[in-house]
Write a structure and sequence with these properties.
The termini are far apart. The protein has a 4-stranded antiparallel β-sheet. Strands 1-2 form a two-stranded antiparallel ribbon. Helix 2 packs antiparallel against helix 3. It has one domain. The chain is built from 3 helices and 6 strands; from the N terminus they run E-E-H-H-E-E-E-E-H. The protein is an alpha+beta fold and 114 residues long.
């Protein structure tokens, strides 16, 4: 599945990604990453898909992802269940990480707002 996305800036100049409601929790994880971290996590994801690791968990602030070869689960520990987690295809999670990395590289994650 190819999920829609939209990049936007919050009032403080922070880059954000708007995702469909069913996977919105993923944005809580992705929005914290700079380009180097995104590259590192894409490499980890590729190792899982290639079978080098059976699975891998990444945590960042209040959000975490559990990567498996076919599916990735995301959770936000600050949101009450059952609306605090989602699952999407690992290939789609990789695509979203690449989109985020490319956007951060070209426009920066945070900009100064007057």
């Amino acid at each position: 599945m190819n999920y829609s996305h939209e990049f936007w800036r919050d009032p403080f100049g922070g880059l954000r990604i708007r995702l469909p409601k069913e996977i919105a929790i993923v944005s809580d994880f992705i929005e914290n990453l700079d380009e180097d971290e995104a590259d590192e996590y894409i490499e980890v994801l590729d190792h899982v898909v290639e079978g080098n690791y059976p699975s891998y968990e990444l945590e960042y602030n209040a959000a975490a992802v559990f990567i498996e070869p076919k599916y990735t689960s995301a959770i936000n520990y600050y949101i009450s269940p059952p609306n605090n987690q989602c699952k999407l295809e690992t290939s789609e999670f990789r695509r979203l990480l690449l989109l985020w990395r490319n956007k951060v590289m070209t426009e920066g994650r945070d900009i100064k707002v007057n």
